[in-house]
């Protein structure tokens, strides 16, 4: 049987995160870097040279030129969030599948336009939430789904923070209202909310209440914030995200019979292995001086990093469409939209003086 050709990627924009994803495309067994474009040809050339692009990679001095290349199957879009609707819509018209950096849009209604552009052209759309593709994530989900070991989910807490330096806080696109207006909420909060929805089997909460006194910069962009999410069945979740606190990326999920803890859920401590802690029916000794049933550590190894696994899964879906006449996998844009809906609700709660906001699906 003939080997399926590799999916040829174009990258539009030379953002810092594109360094990581271009490496991932190089490492994915079913993908190849075909083209990169920037607003400056010199910048695109320098980016390709600095990031190990294969010899023969096309280098363009505009985003349009990448989209006009007939040999590009799919594009990775690491542009500022304010540009997503414009460039994904154009990519869809050019029949390019889209791997889209998060946050996917400035609002759920804007993202719905992006979904429509891709779906109407039969194209695969996936966001760049890389930790979803690590084998640890599947192992953790197996534990959360085990009624005997974990039981029913009752609460989940997540956080993602890092202490940004002065240059970041002044110049990064994530602090600019015209580029990434959602700030920390869109960047770090996206991961926190996604983890909450993942643990809750993507059931949207009924109500969201933002935590009072978020940090805003002088342009009004969120530097740190938090929120509480509640469901009609009594589940509760909280998250906190910040550009102003030390590095942390935790999940704590509590069930009626078990608990799960992970301390590096977005970027593992090590590239090729990751761990989590699981406990079931925990208790104390008679004197209540120690745990009798202590959490167990589970270590999951991977041959290629989670970013390459993400690219590989996306390329597999694109290849199925291109070579097998398959339909696009709709679960990924559905999950993205739900994540965006929660972000919208947090932002609305802040703007409404920290009032509860109901989510309407």
UniProtKB/TrEMBL annotation:
Pfam families: GFO_IDH_MocA, GFO_IDH_MocA_C3. It comes from Clitoria ternatea (Butterfly pea). Residues 7-126 form the Gfo/Idh/MocA-like oxidoreductase N-terminal domain. It comes from the Eukaryota. GO terms for molecular function: nucleotide binding. This is Gfo/Idh/MocA-like oxidoreductase N-terminal domain-containing protein. Belongs to the Gfo/Idh/MocA family. InterPro entries: Gfo/Idh/MocA-like_OxRdtase_N, GFO_IDH_MocA-like_dom, NAD(P)-bd_dom_sf. Transmembrane segments: none annotated. Residues 146-260 form the GFO/IDH/MocA-like oxidoreductase domain.
